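can u do me a favor
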């Protein structure tokens, strides 16, 4: 029985590593999509689009792993929460990959339709904040780190504030220069996608809290709002 239990724990660790691998790939896609936008690079944008199928395949593979563990094992309460959360996390990671593709498509359109010598604004800081949240939420997941999970959720407030500032900058640009209306509109979509990526990272961090405590909580600077499961 002890060997069976250890084998099950090993499979859960392997599951966490698969989630980390998927998260690393989607994070790379986001970074390259933003670089494509900043550098007006159709090559980088196309590379992001080509990775979308790989993310979808990872999604299916991890889902099958979870279903197999549920069907063939007898997970205890915490293990059950971990498998259930993995199914939720792959959805968030898949959506992060989708948003990377969305940004890459914007980069392609802007390169083809506009001839700007430099970007209208710098998306680097916002993208790095969002990517840091994704990376640290996955780190919290594999390390079972509640403190880090809470910190990730708190950082979402800073992303929201950066989003509002960039949105206002873009709106001001369109008011001051009508020729910027269309490129600024594309960039605003990219800013929205980056903000949503941070939201997905927050979702992952909140799943860590659920795994470790059995409580589902909305975490933030103002304090958690508890909803017992």
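np, heres the sequence
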């Amino acid at each position: 029985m002890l060997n069976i239990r250890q084998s099950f724990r090993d499979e859960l660790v392997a599951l966490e590593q698969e989630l980390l691998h998927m998260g690393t790939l989607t994070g790379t896609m986001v970074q390259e999509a933003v670089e494509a936008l900043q550098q007006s690079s159709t090559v980088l944008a196309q590379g992001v689009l080509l990775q979308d199928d790989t993310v979808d395949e990872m999604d299916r593979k991890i889902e099958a792993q979870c279903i197999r563990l549920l069907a063939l094992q007898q997970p205890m309460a915490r293990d059950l929460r971990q498998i259930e959360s993995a199914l939720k996390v792959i959805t968030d990671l898949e959506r992060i990959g989708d948003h990377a593709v969305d940004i890459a498509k914007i980069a392609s359109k802007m390169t083809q339709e506009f001839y700007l010598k430099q970007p209208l604004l710098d998306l680097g800081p916002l993208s790095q904040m969002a990517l840091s949240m994704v990376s640290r939420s996955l780190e919290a997941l594999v390390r079972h780190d509640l403190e880090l999970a809470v910190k990730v959720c708190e950082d979402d407030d800073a992303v929201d504030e950066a989003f509002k500032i960039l949105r206002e900058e873009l709106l001001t640009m369109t008011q001051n220069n009508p020729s910027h209306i269309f490129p600024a509109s594309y960039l605003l979509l990219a800013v929205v996608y980056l903000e949503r990526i941070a939201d997905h990272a927050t979702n992952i961090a909140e799943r860590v809290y659920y795994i470790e405590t059995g409580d589902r909580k909305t975490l933030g600077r103002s304090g958690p709002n508890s909803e017992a499961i």
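The longest strand covers residues 215-218. hope that helps!!
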